[in-house]
Amino acid sequence: MTERVDASPPDSTDAHMENAPHPIDTDFELGQDNINPFGLEIHNPVFLISGLSVVAFVFLTLAFQTQATEFFGWLRPTLTSTFDWFFLSAANIFVLFCLMLLVTPLGSVRLGGKDATPDYSYMGWFAMLFAAGMGIGLMFFGVSEPMSHFASSMGGTTVEGAARTDWAPLGAAADDVVAARNLGMAATIFHWALHPWAIYAVLALALAFFTYNRGLPLTLRSAFYPILGERIWGWWGHTIDIVAVFATLFGLATSLGFGTEQALAGLNYLFGWGTGSVAKVILIAAITALALISVLRGLDGGVKILSEVNIALAGLLLLFIIIVGPTAEIFSTTISGGAAYVKDFIPLAMPFGREDTNFSQGWTAFYWAWWISWSPFVGMFIARVSRGRTVREFIFCVLIIPTLVCVMWMGAFGGTAIAQVVADAAAPVKDAALELKLFVMLENLPFATVTSMLGIILVLVFFVTSSDSGSLVIDTITAGGKTDAPAAQRVFWCTFEGVVAATLLLVGGSEALTALQAMAVSTGFPFTIVLLVLCVSLFIGLRQSLREDRNTA
Predict the structure, then answer these.
(1) CA-CA distance, 462 to 118, in Å (whole number)?
(2) Is residue 107 within 8 Å of residue 376, measured between CB atoms?
(3) Is 22 exposed, middle or buried (0-12, 13-18, 19+ CB in 10 A)?
(4) Burial letters 312-346, b for 16+ CB under 10 A, else e
(5) What's the predicted TM-score (pTM) here?
(6) Residue 35 dihedral angles phi and psi, to the nearest 5°
(7) What is the pLDDT of residues 371-412, one digit of tens each?
C-alpha cells in the first residue's frame, strides 16, 4: 500500500470533510467565526481565551512561586482521594464501550464512508499513534513502575488506625518473590494497557467519525452534534474546545516534564551535565526548537518520519534487552505478569471498597486523570491519520495491539530490573531515583554507555514528536477545526507548551513532578465528564450511520 492514496494535500483534513458520505445539514461554514489579524486563522473566542489564560497562568505561577508550590502540593492528592471512584468508574466505562463497538455491527462502519481507503500504511499509522500515545511515559516508567510495585508488594501491608499506609496493590505479597513480581507486573500492565488506550480510542474515533463521515470540523465540539445540535457552534461548543485545549496543554506538559527529568538525569549520570533549573530550561528550549522545525515541516514531513525512526530505535533497544538481558526471566515475567493482569483485572479496576487506597488513589486515579487530560491531543492526532479504517479495525489496532506491546515492553524492562534485584538484594537499581532507574538497569548490561545514549535519544525524540503533535492538535482546535492554519500559530502553541512545562518544573522545586501531576489531574477531572457524554453522542452517531449505510446498500 502506498503511503497516500488520495489526491488531497498532505496534512489536509478539510478536503476529506467535503467528501463525507453522510454530511450533517448545517449552515455552519468552516472558519466562519475566525478572525484574521496579520493573516492568521484565529477562532474567536477559543484562541483568545485559551491563549490569554495560558499566558496568565505562566505569569502568575512564576510571580507567586511559593504559593503555587503549596497549591500544587495540595491539589493533586485532594482530587485523587476525593474522586478516585469517579476516575476508576469512568475508565471502566470507556473499556466496556470500546469492547462493545468491537463485537457489535457498529464495528462495520468505515471512517470516511464505505469506499474510503486508508491514507497511511499499517506501519506508518501504528508508528504515529504509538509514538503520540505512550512514548515518553514508557521510557520513564518502564523500569521504575514495575520496580516500585514489586518492592511495595514484597513489603506487605501496614495498617495505622483503620487505614492501610503501604503503597502495595491489592493485598500485597509479603516476602514472596514470585507473587510480588507477578502482582507488580499486573499492576503496571493495568496502568498501561486496555484502560489508557480505551480512553484514547473513544475520543479519536468520535473525532474521526464526525469529521470524515459527517463533514464537521476536526474539533471536539463536532462530536457532540447528536446531543447539542446547532448549539455546538455557540458557547456550548466554545466551552468544550477551551476545556480540551487546557487538558491537552497541561497533560502534555506533564509528559514533557517527565521526559526532561529523565533526559537530564541520564545526561548527568553519563557526563555530569547537572540537573538544576538552568539545565532544565536549556534542555526544554533546545527540544522545543527542534519541535518547531518538525512543526514547520508538517505532519508527513515531520511527525511521521520522527515517529517511524523512534519506533525503530525503541524496537532495537527492546530487542537488545531481550537478547543480552536475562532472556528466560524476561519471558517468564512477561507471561506470568500478563496472566496475573488478566486474573487481577477486576480487583484492580474496582472503584469501590478498596483497602489499597494509596495505590488506587496515588497511582491509578492519577494515571486515569493523566491519560484523560492527554486524550484530546492523542485522540485528535490519531483521528487525523485514521481515515479509511473500519470502526472494528480501528478499535482493535488502537486498543489491542498497543496493549500487547506494552506488556512486552514492561516485561522486558521491568523484568530485567526485578531480576537484578532478586539476584542481588543490594543491586543499585533498587534504590536509584525514578528518573535514573532505566540507566542504572542498563549499566549492568553490555554496551551500557551506548544503550544509555540510545535511551536518552529516544526520550528526546519522543519529546519532539509529542510537542510537535500537540501543537498541531491545539492549533486545529483554536483555528476552529482548520488543519491548514498559518505556521505562526503552531509556533505559538509549540513555544508555550515548552514554557508551561518549564514553569511547572521550576516552581515545583524538589517536588517538580508533583506540580506537573497536579495540573494534569485538575484538567483531567472536568474532561472526564466531557468524555462520558461523548460516548453517548458517538453511539447515536454510529447507529445512525449504520442505518444509512444499510439503506444505501
Answers:
(1) 25
(2) no
(3) middle
(4) ebbeebbebbbeebbeebbebbbebbbebbeebbe
(5) 0.87
(6) -115, 155
(7) 898 888 788 878 888 888 999 999 998 888 888 888 999 999
